[in-house]
Amino acid sequence: MFNPSRLVLARKRRGMTKRGLAERVGLTDRSITAFESGAAEPSDPTLLRIAEVLTFPVSFFSASDLEEISEAAASFRSLSKMTAAQRNAAVAAGTLAVALDDWITERFRLPPPDVPKLGPHLDPETAAEAARAEWGLGERPIKNLVHLLEARGVRVFSLAEQSREVDAFSLWRNGTPYAFLNTQKSAEHSRMDAAHELGHLVMHSHHDLPQGREVEREAQAFASAFLMPRAGVVASAPRFASLKELYRHKQHWRTSLAAYVYRLHVLGLITEWQYRTLNVEISKRGYRTREPHGVGRETSQVLNKVFSALRTEGIGKADVAAALRIESADLDELVFGLAIVPVTGKAQKRQQGHSRRPALRLVDGGAASA
Predict the structure, then answer these.
(1) Over the stretch 121-135, which tens digit does the pLDDT of each residue have?
(2) How far apart are CA 204 and CA 198, in angstroms?
(3) Which of 42, 127, 234, 305 has the fewest Cβ atoms within 10 angstroms?
């Protein structure tokens, strides 16, 4: 049977309006509205044309309802800069990622959630210190933030969006935290985004606060303090804020040059004049879009281990995509930049019923050596 909610999801994932889809398919707006409301069903030829335009398998539109992510439950960064189409596409990608996570969770035992819910009663600096203390991170740099989040039960997926307005978002679902990162950005940008979303999960987990600039400012302040703890930065700060010295220190903390300079300013380690002068130099050299002395991109332990384990059973990307009733390209986008192992294997019929879900052994990527 045709499932109207699946049509809505597919259209939003492709960033289309009802009118845009109707024009591409050769129908009226009223027809698309009727299909999406359940008032009418498309004929087989029409459904085939819709599937071709939206690049989803025909079988996608006859499956059961997916648990769709609520826009209100998602903490979006740069919400004011996003168009409705961009926001809808990102939320739809998150819905597909959650479906993939459910599929994985049925087959593997993942780390249980262990993210502190500190609430809004703490200021971001204190909340970041409390989170670091609870996870035993001390004052040292975090070597791999994605590994750390995954070891603490956060499900991390990719938003392979070309638009710079779409940074990241996060949410809690049935007691499990999720973070969706735009992996098209620089490694430093993605690390800050991941820490920003952790701030939302830690401080705004109840989601009874309005989304807005203040909530985003708190999450960003948390991210800065979490990646660059006060005591550690103060103890290691350069005596002279030359660009050469700043390069070395920003690599130590694995952040962008601009983020490190901002942290020095917030902590009172450089003057307002120095801060302004350094920002002018950073902009002049193009370092806001091209990070100097960049760090390596962080990848996912969970996704790499899952796909490696599946490949040993002859289960490849096409098999997983078919199980989810999506195209392989959509599966690629959910893991883009996070899974580096080949996810294509010899396509076989997937064995049904696993008596025991294998546990994934994760290495906590928390602290780097001092």
Answers:
(1) 889 999 999 999 999
(2) 10
(3) 234
